[in-house]
Amino acid sequence: MEKQNNSNIPASFRNFKPQFTVHAPGRINIIGEHTDYNDGFVLPTAINKKIKLQFSANGSASVCNIYSKTYNTYFSFDLQKISRSEHMWENYILGVVNEIQKRGKNPEGFDCIIDSDLPVGAGISSSAALECGIAFGLNELFNLGLSRQTIAELSRDAEHHYVGTKCGIMDQFASVLSREDHLILLDCHSLEATYVPANFEGHKLVLLNTKVSHSLAASEYNTRRKECEEVINYIQKRYPEVNSLRDVDLQRLQEFKNELSEVLYKRARFIISENNRVLKAVEALKSDDLDHLGLLMYASHKGLRDNYEVSCKELDFLVEFSTNFEAVKGARMMGGGFGGCTINLIEEEAIDDFVQKATEAYGKKFNIEPEVIIVTPQQGTYITKN
Ligand code: GLA
């Protein structure tokens, strides 16, 4: 990979004339964490922060050039020889191309310039946005006939095979299939999406980015997935009809309390309770009961911290701090965990005060200034013509 500086944009881009721009958003999740790979429910949406990818076919059969403006980094690859790279960010792109090819579709040579205002490692899915943005652009450029859902699925598969995180479908689905001013109640078993109006009357969603990203994140993520699978393998011996934690309720889990290790029991208990909370959260939203929604968010955080054990001291501090403010209805860690953002549902007029005090307290404790991101639910991936 060649590194470039701004005054020296790669030669292959000197005459770059984009045919169109793909806008690939990040996502938030109101509630339903780690439930997606357990066939459960999630409540995410795309947001007003995104990656922009400008595309142009370059007339060659197989040479592709990618330039990241944000990171001032450039690389080229050959469509005939796709393999994993030692540079992680390249794998998001190579993995997607590989998955497209595996589905019998054949993109040709293209150039792409990428520009992003999505913070990396903040738990708002910059990786899913990049994967889906590439797939979306190639689909448009070469008329590949891929549906939005296929784009989300193949992008998830790219992450499994090229990046090594055995993620669920939530991030990619939300990035590609969201609708403005709505949340998606996604059934990750059937992939049925119900669009729920995001009625936060007088309130806003504020993310506080801890700016920490603990190295445990990737390995512990895969471990959690394996632990859930272990529980299922065990339960299946007595109940062969059970395929995932979605098919188990708290009562049935209780039967296994003395047979499962304490850790496995806690993991499963969290997932089953979190699924229940997602459905309750949708009911709360439909009846404009933001107080109840907020309590469910706090309960979700507690479960993620104590039973699923994917939080960290920085996230816990910010969530705990938010409980001093009546105007904050709910707060919790968001995404895979071990760093990234908290999501806070807060009365609009109290935002400045809360943000200022949280910034001060967090700075004092950890000597880090948290990043504040006010988000709104947006439509999924879309294209504008240049
Ligand atoms: C990451 C994964 C998602 C999901 C969340 C946790 O964002 O990519 O599939 O599992 O963590 O809810």
Task: Report on this structure.
It is a single chain. By secondary structure, this protein is α+β, with helices and mostly antiparallel strands. It contains ten helices and 15 strands. The chain has helices at residues 88-102, 126-141, 148-163, 170-177, 216-238, 250-255, 262-286, 290-306, 313-322, 351-366; strands at 2-3, 20-29, 41-42, 44-57, 63-68, 73-78, 110-116, 182-187, 192-197, 203-213, 328-333, 339-347, 371-375, 377-378, 382-385. The relative contact order is 0.17. The structure holds alpha-D-galactopyranose. The site of alpha-D-galactopyranose (GLA) has 10 residues, from helix 4.
Brief write-up:
With 386 residues, the protein is α+β, with helices and mostly antiparallel strands. It has helices at 88-102, 126-141, 148-163, 170-177, 216-238, 250-255, 262-286, 290-306, 313-322, 351-366, and strands at residues 2-3, 20-29, 41-42, 44-57, 63-68, 73-78, 110-116, 182-187, 192-197, 203-213, 328-333, 339-347, 371-375, 377-378, 382-385.
Query: What's the quaternary structure here?
Result: single chain
CATH hierarchy: architecture of the largest domain: 2-Layer Sandwich
Named once each, the bound ligands are: alpha-D-galactopyranose
- Give the biggest beta sheet: 8 strands, mixed
List the helices and strands in order. EEEEEEHEHHHEEEHHHHHEEHEEE
Q: Compute the number of strand runs.
A: 15
Low-confidence stretches: 1-7
CATH level-1 class of the largest domain: Alpha Beta
Outline: globular
Integer average pLDDT: 95
Helical percent range?
25-40%
* Spatial extent as radius of gyration: 21 Å
Number of domains: 2
Counting DSSP H or I runs of 4 or more residues, the number of helices is 10
- CATH fold annotation of the largest domain: Ribosomal Protein S5, domain 2
Strand content: 15-25%
Decide which structural class fits the backbone.
alpha+beta
Distance between the termini: 29 Å
